[in-house]
Amino acid sequence: MFKLLPDTPSERVTVLVDDVTVQVPPGYTAAAAMLMNTDEATRTTATSNQPRAPYCMMGVCFECLMEINGVPNQQGCLVIVSEGMRINRQQGKREINV
Amino acid sequence: MNQACDLAIIGAGPAGMAAALTAANRGVNVVVLDEQPEPGGQIYRGIERVERTRARHLEWLGPDYAAGANFVRAFRNAKIEYLDGAQVWQIEAPANDASPGRLFYKRNGAVGQLSPRRVLIATGAMERPMPIPGWTLPGVLTCGAGQTVFKANGLAPQGRFVLAGCGPLLLLYAAQLVRAGVKPAAILETTFNHGAALPHAWKFFTTPEYWRKGLALLRELKAAGVPLRKNVTQLVLHGDARVREIEYQCGGKTTREPVDQVFLHQGVVPNGNLAWSMNLAHAWDDAQRSFRPRLDEWGRSSTPGIFVAGDAGGIVGAKGAHATGRLAALAIAADLGKITIEGRDQQARTPRAELAKHQAARPFLDALYRPAPHWLAPQEADTMVCRCEEIRAGEIRRLVTEQLCPGPNQMKSFARCGMGPCQGRLCGLTVVELIAQCRGVPVPEVGYYRIRPPVKPVTMGDLATLDVPVRPDAVGL
Lengths: 98, 477
Ligand SMILES: Cc1cc2nc3c(=O)[nH]c(=O)nc-3n(C[C@H](O)[C@H](O)[C@H](O)COP(=O)(O)OP(=O)(O)OC[C@H]3O[C@@H](n4cnc5c(N)ncnc54)[C@H](O)[C@@H]3O)c2cc1C
Ligand code: FES
Fold this sequence. Notes:
The complex is a heterodimer of chains A (98) and B (477).
Chain A: E1 2-4, E2 13-17, E3 20-24, H1 30-37, E4 43-44, E5 51-52, E6 65-68, E7 71-75, E8 86-88
Parallel strand pairs in A: 2-8
Antiparallel strand pairs in A: 2-3, 4-5, 6-7, 6-8
Chain B: E1 2-10, H1 14-24, E2 30-33, H2 47-53, H3 55-61, H4 63-66, H5 68-77, E3 81-83, E4 86-92, E5 102-107, E6 110-121, E7 125-127, E8 140-142, H6 143-153, E9 155-157, E10 161-166, H7 168-179, E11 186-189, H8 194-197, H9 201-204, H10 208-223, E12 228-229, E13 232-239, E14 243-250, E15 253-258, E16 261-266, E17 268-270, H11 273-277, E18 282-285, E19 290-293, E20 306-308, H12 317-335, H13 341-347, H14 349-359, H15 362-368, H16 373-376, E21 384-386, E22 391-392, H17 393-401, H18 408-415, H19 428-439, H20 443-446, H21 460-464
Parallel strand pairs in B: 1-2, 1-6, 2-3, 6-20, 8-16, 10-11, 10-16, 11-12
Antiparallel strand pairs in B: 4-5, 5-6, 7-17, 13-14, 14-15, 18-19, 21-22
Helix pairs in contact in B: 1-5, 1-12, 6-7, 7-10, 12-13, 12-14, 17-19
The complex binds flavin-adenine dinucleotide and FE2/S2 (inorganic) cluster.
């Protein structure tokens, strides 16, 4: 799990990570909010349910796919949190909304 | 919405920002798109917020990072249209000099379109995949990812963590953490062939900026008492729901230790999917062990109207990226009649000299940090290669030796390798190294995946709102 370094401003945004209320600094990505709150899987794979978590934090690996405000398959490392955002782990393959 | 512009730049890192400033100052009408929420690229991630609200972090991250603040300010203040959070998923080159090309992007959930007369691809680098047993476990990230959450979020690892692999970025991240009072349990260095770098040492010593910095980082880590294990020849990560232990071989001895987090790194390679998707001609760069687009001295690609600058065109580092961005912008400004050819050549002198200076450091760094063959093509059969579709090294070897898949594209259609959402970004180089090794041929003979647009996830719904041909298989999630 990641911890916040000292000398970070105290302003916070409230989000729901797997239905649990957590507070993260503004400007965080959904993936960073996850990394601050769990050291386990943020998704499981479609083929064999392997645990996976954000890996590159720059938009290339797609390991951070999560459900954000009800929409699955979002790249969590590219989505900035907003007040009340619902961020959920995702299990296996999700259909894309077409 | 379809907006016309002179120049569209993809990427707001040092290359893209320098190009945008140079072009805008010469009357070129520029639009810059970057999928990140803030400008700066990988090196200056989060710089504006850090400068504003985290003064001590700015110190810990160091002067090279802090230097980004003024650069980004200049970029923000210039007459440049900057679209933050815009993912570019497809570009079509201009058919001829009179007609513009087409560029498609997604921003805030909606799709947008540009009609640029020139395009500059400045998509930067990504970390070279480091496929070792257990690298898919939660708790295992790249050094760049760790560094990114430090810069952008003020986050640091907790518990017992190690950094493993090789390259300047690994040492830099370790030093930045140490300055913040967060000490790695160990650095496991995989650098294997120091001798190969020796012939380039002389030239390297003409670039004091680089070697002084490298030595200072090593000294800093030593003073902080970070254990540095050199010549690590094997790495295995063990775990269940997350990583629990790291096993490594060093000096003929195997050690297995508990670990909470692991940060891997073995250099950076061009982040090339956009360039590949446009069928730009590529060349194999053996020193950097990666492909890069074929470019002329101005960053002009094989496709008219399309330029590439910065690490996307072959690794040149942040300052080299800055220089190549300026050079491409000058050529584009001249193409568009904003400056004369003489003006272009005259103004190119400074960036060209700077580029040469920074390039002088490359051969040494490339040779020193070139990964050993088994880090490029994993030996263990069950090491995951394609993380998305879960294809392991043994399966890839089998498909090659049984002559079912002689190349990466057969690997795609036969085994779905590289067909997942990352579109081969995290397995492409490993797959071609494995195929080349099995067949006993050089990598360029094997080639690379054929990458097709869209290079970012778009839905059928997105595509339906635009007049672009839809390939159902392209919507790959
Ligand atoms: C994770 C990471 C961390 C690094 N940290 C450092 C460091 O601390 N110090 C250092 O000296 N070097 C660092 N480097 C090396 C770095 O590549 C160069 O120093 C420098 O950032 C290269 O500049 P650039 O302009 O070529 O590309 P970048 O700075 O990488 O900028 C490219 C930009 O393009 C954007 N982009 C890519 N594809 C798309 C797309 N399809 N649509 C929209 N936008 C897109 C990206 O979001 C990115 O902002 C790092 C590299 C990586 C990968
Ligand atoms: S963590 Fe790699 S794409 Fe988001």
